[in-house]
Amino acid sequence: MRRGDRWRINLLKDMAYQMDDVVDEWSTAILRSQIQGDENASMSEKKVSSCFPSPCLCFKQVASRHDIALKIKGIKLQLGAIDSERGRFNFAPNRTEERPQRLITTSAIDISEVCGRNMDVDTILDHVLGRSCPEKFVGLYIISIVGTGGMGKTTLAQLAYNHPEVKAHFDERIWVCVSDPFDPIRVFRSIVEILQKESCNFHDLEALQQKVQTCVCGKKFLIVLDDVWTEDYRLWEQLKNTLNNGVVESRILVTTRKVNVVMMMGTTYRYPIQELSPQHAQMLFHQIAFQGKMKEKEEELKEIGEKIADKCKGLPLALKTLGNLMRLKNSKEEWEAVLYNQVWKLDVFEIVISPALLLSYYELPPPIKRCFSYCAVFPKDTVIEVDMLIKLWMAQSYLNSNDTNKEMETLGREYFNYLAAGSFFQDFEKDEEGHVIKCKMHDVVHDLAQFLTKNECFNLEDGNKNEGRIDLSFQKTRHATIILRERAQNCMLTSTIILPESAQNCLSIYKMKNLCTLLLEWESRMIPEVLTNLFQHLTCLRALDLRSNDYMEELPREVGELIHLRYLNVSSWLRMQSLPETICDLYNLQTLNISGCRCLDALPLAMHKLINLRHLQNSGTLRLKGLPRRIGILNSLWTLDEFIVSDRNDQCKIEDLRHFNNIRGELKVRGLGEVINAREAKTAEMKNKIYLHDLKLNFDLMGRKDAVEALQPPPNLKSLTIIGYGGIEWPNWVMRSSILTQLKNLILSDCQNCSYMPSVGELRLLEMLEIWDMDSVKCLGSEFLGSSSPISFPKLKRLSFHNMKVWEKWEVKEEEEEERSVMPCLCHLEIYNCQNLDGLPDRVLHIKTPLQELVILSSEILRKRQGRRLAQSISYPCTKRSMINSEISTGGLTSCIRSSLIYLLYIYIYVCVCVCV
Questions:
Q1: Which spans in 772-909 are helix H?
Q2: Closest to 166 in 3D by CA, of 218, 124, 212
Q3: How far is Cα 370 from Cα 500, in angstroms, rounded to an integer?
Q4: HSE on the CB side for 438, CA within 13 Å?
Q5: In terms of C-beta density within 10 A (0-12 exposed, 13-18 middle, 19 or more buried), how is residue 128 classed?
């Protein structure tokens, strides 16, 4: 691309940013006018949907309309100037200059990824091997496989090319990826190099033609010409005439999308490849999408997968691409979202992940391209939080979809999975459900992102000796990450900073007046006036991350001037006690992260004006005693880490929880001790929060059973924590497997008045159970196991007991030993600070339990009666071999341990501060 053309493109991109800001400013002004009018007219709650009036009705009320009109006029003048430049300098798109190279195919193939092509292969082989050749045929025998993109033409050619009979039948086999444009010299050189098995130094077309003629003379050869596009007969004739020296049984196998190519080449046999049958399509999709999934998950998703495969209409590439995408998705909800929301609108069918990184980028759909290039804002080797990345994409309006049924967060996760499947991300860290929560970018991939964004994205870590000289056009910088050390941070933000190894390069952050993203990290004290000035200069900001500060006591009120702001992260401001009221003027704000602000004791009362807020991350706000009452208007919230039930009239009650049925992921409810009866509790509509996966209920050592019964969780819950329940009896839903059908993790803590454990042994998917501070439980008996199931705790892997002060007995009745299996999957058992426990049941340590870790901490009676000689006779940590060779003869535990040696890998017995080894 010429320098002048690139300059004009960059100018157009700058105009696009300006237009976006002007439209956003106009929309915000209209929204502000409406909200202020509503506030003045009535203090009653209004639906979020009523806050979007017609621009025509409110335009007269917008005070800044004249300024906006001037900005629009200025943009029109600049666009007009660019348009005149285009005509004056004949600036037009050049379709041949710097076009990306098409995917280069080879003959290699993974046969395990092929399905349903046996009949197609047999047909092609009949012609390649001459079994279906017309009698007395003279000339080149050309077989053309024709079909649309993604149909499997190249795969079919690869299968034929690599068939054992073909290898034995021909003297020479040559594979050439022709692609577009058709370059005769490149094609001839490829043929020569394959035949000679060494590089070719010929550059003249005539010399290459003669060399090819010599190499194929008198030989029976098969040449595959893959991905032919040209319809120019003159180019084809040069190749055709050169190949006439071979014997009559030679073959040319061609793949193409174009029927005109088939006709131009004088094809002997034309094979129009067809879609896979529904059965074979489902088989192909199944073997890719379900790779690595557990059998239970496979059974759960099989029917949905078949429906998704059917929607691919038998296109192998679509099945493979979508199969690879679905392989990253593990929950039923995600699969159903793809089935009903038509994820293939992303043009995934037309994309093949290429070994060439640049080509992979060119193949990405335009919305995903900008999501990828935005990642240049992160420094190299950064651990990227996927949830944060998606919120940053949202803040830049990259996730606005034409599909009104698709939420931005869902689309963002699809975009991320799309990029991950294309190897743009790596080093994945996943949660228990298999969702990627953290990742990195390879250095080479990061270089590509930086190359694409040039001066748009900028990151600097002061003290990095490898940065070198940086050439920046500050006003063009849109996204920046700046990591400051103490010696440089205040001088940079107040005046200038000298970049490493370049005393001449001075940067003032205030010059980046068009900055849309600022991710700022500093290690120590910052002058408050610095942030004030920052907010006054960087008025185009849409994303601002100021996390982790030990010194700032308040966020400047000037933050309210950032009218475009959609993402604000002030998490872990350890001294901040309140947020400024002006933060409620950020009507476009989508994400507010105040997690870890442990001194924050109140939120602004006008929080309900943040009508676009979708994520309020407030975990770890320990001093926060309530949420503003009218925050219930924000019924679009996806994330609310903690809901606090308060007794104050201006703060949320339990009934306000009913407004948040769209909450996803995790929710902790504090202050449930304020809920005194079932009627109040029922108004929370806890059962209707179907998108919740992790629920924590804190009762503050209070709570009545009837009230807790009305707080029955949603059926899709995966993790449940009950803290400080003050009742004597457990609510029925804790013990009913028909309610908590998906529960995998259960924590019961500080429920001091319950004298028995709930019957949770029948929770069929439960994998982890933790019991803490149950001060009234003396005996753990058969009620713990449940009564109706032949297998108690069928999936339980980890079990731990902590601080059980009066717990003495853990019993399983003798008659039950023969009737049921107990914890057949238990791998880890931990007993901590259970001072009165005198033994463990044989059924927990039987030979069929694959116990690998037994941890006993600060449980002295258990050690004295059963563990001293065991602990003294084994090495630490204990391995399978050392235990088998040990002389173990201690009490009741010994027989159990003996029978479990085949599985046990680790024993740790610790009393007070002494390790017994």
A1: 814-819, 860-862, 868-872, 880-884, 891-900
A2: 124
A3: 30
A4: 5
A5: buried
Which residues does residue 115 pair with via DSSP β-bridges, in sequence order?
A: none
3-state secondary structure of 132: coil
**Dihedral-angle region of residue 868 (phi above 0 means left; psi in -120 to 50 means alpha; beta otherwise):** alpha
Buried b (16+ CB within 10 A) or exposed e, 205-223: eeebbebbeebbeeebbbb
CB atoms within 10 A of CB 607: 21
- Read off the pTM: 0.64
User: Which three-class secondary structure state does DSSP give residue 463?
Assistant: coil
H/E element, 317:
helix 316-327
The DSSP secondary structure of 231-257, one letter per residue, reads --HHHHHHHHHHTTTS-TT-EEEEEES
Q: Which of 250-264, 336-350, 386-400, 747-761 has the lowest mean pLDDT?
A: 336-350
| pLDDT of 38 | 63
Nearest to 256 by CA among 351, 182, 331: 182
The size of the chain, in residues, is 917
Distance between CA atoms of 323 and 301, rounded to whole angstroms? Answer: 13
Helix, strand, or coil here: 306?
Answer: helix
pLDDT in tens, 803-836: 999 999 988 775 555 667 888 889 899 999 999 9
- Extract long-range pairs of 813-821: CB within 8 Å, 24+ residues apart: 813/781, 813/782, 816/782, 816/785, 816/843, 817/842, 817/843, 819/790, 820/785, 820/789, 820/790, 820/791, 820/792, 821/790, 821/791, 821/792, 821/794, 821/848
Strands 828-832 and 821-822: unpaired
- Please name the residue that has the structure tokens 């990306």: 100
- 824 preceded by cis ω (within 30°)? no
Indicate the average pLDDT of the chain: 77
- Per-residue pLDDT tens for 349-394? 333 333 335 545 766 788 999 999 999 999 877 889 999 999 999 9
Query: What's the pLDDT tens digit per position in 599-626?
Result: 999 999 999 999 999 999 999 999 999 9
Judged by phi (left if over 0) then psi (alpha if -120 to 50, else beta), residue 200 lies in beta
Which residues does 522 contact at the CB level (< 8 Å), separation at least 6?
483, 484, 486, 489, 549
The candidate with the shortest Cα–Cα distance to 361, out of 419, 316, 402, 314, is 419
Quote the DSSP letter at residue 733. H
Decide if pLDDT at 121 tops 80. yes
